[in-house]
Specification:
CoA-Trfase_III_dom_1_sf; Carnitine dehydratase; alpha/beta; globular; four-stranded antiparallel β-sheet; Rossmann fold; 483 residues; catalytic activity; seven-stranded mixed β-sheet; 20 helices
Amino acid sequence: MTSHTQSTTKQTPPTPEIVSQLLRTLGDPDPVRGAEDITVVGADPLVPSVHRLADAMSAAIGVFGRQTAAVGELRGHRHQKVEVQAGAAIDQLMATYHTTLSGRPIGALLDDPALLGNNDFYRARDGRWIFIIATYPHLRDAVHSVLRCGLDKVDIARAAADWDAFTLEEAICARGGVACVVRSRDEWLAHPAGRYVAQRPVVEVERVGDGPVRPLEPIGAADEALAGLRVLDLTHVIAGPVSTRLLAQFGADVLHLTRPDRPDPIPMIAMTGGGKRNAYCDLRDAHDRAAFHDALQEADVFVHAYRGLARHGASTEELVRRRPGLIALEYHAWGSEGPWGERGGFDQLACSATGFAMEEWTDRPSLPPTYLLNDYLAAYLGAAAVATVLRRRATEGGSWRIRVTLAGVCHWVQELGLLAREDVRGLPLPGRTPLAALSTTATDFGPLTEPATPFDYSSRPVPQPGRRSPLGSAPFQWLQGAV
């Protein structure tokens, strides 16, 4: 299948307009003033992509910074403006490439780096392309139970070439794996799952029940904006963990929960775990489930990135019934209630399904030059929404649900309009050298070097991520003295 013609007829909104649109989507009480307080230095194109990667990410970062500052102002902080460097926004999208642990690239420290290396586009018998993910052992096993081939990329390519792409997609997903045929944008929008995603905003914010007004208590000048807030974090991989790392960075007490038999790799915990405490919790176990519901009674926010929580009494509807006033942030690949609601997904699969990879076409479908896109955008958008809803809950009360889907993030970036291919073709590919600053901090795993926080306040230092600690190293309880 060949690339469809690039369209540049759609009006591309300037970055301030993107910021204003996001603020309105989140329900900011004063989106005009909020947009005036955000400055983005630099703009697309910075890398050879027809998509507005830097503009989209800069807007999401700026909105997060402004919403967090607004929470602080309600609690006694001085008013802050936010400045974002577009180059730093690109670095955030490439954090997995710029991050090292004890001087070693994150990818080289995985239990089996070959699993990550096998994630790629493969050409099927019918000439269609399919992206196959084998990052985790259970996903690898699903792929190989279908293809019955060896464990390297060459073997997967040979086996995939004997299948029709859509048949292979369904077979892998039926075995509990994840794969997605590369579709054009038109194909995606004609698909039931695509229509479901396209009908929804990039961030869905809805009041789902009654709940008490919970004023934001005053804090000292040295306290961070989210100090005293409690966040239960049941997330994995990148989007969810980065969103809760951001909440922890700005003062929240984040208790990250992990199922012992499905841990994220140590390098990922080092990269996404700043400021969190890590406890084990398996909702299939009655004792752990009881402990979870006990902790929920003191939580302000619950963030999750899993399907099937309703089977364990942890659907958003059940949780807000037990804890009126809760803010639930849900991450999904395709939307929990859509046609693909029970299908797993990752950043690369969202790019494949939505037409994004076709629009990035080189000599075959391609991911953006930053490799990842949706995970980091979704993280900042979700964290910004939490800060906004904290402000709304302080005056309106209520129980709230926030939903962000990876496919929806792709759709949103596409809606910003495409750049002309001839305008980006000659730009250098981003590499190991960052466009902005890196920072190095000590962790329990060794020195961690990563992209620095990508924005500045006008008259207040931006906090740095806190301590990184191993999974299961903390008791399943809140810090004493938290509000």
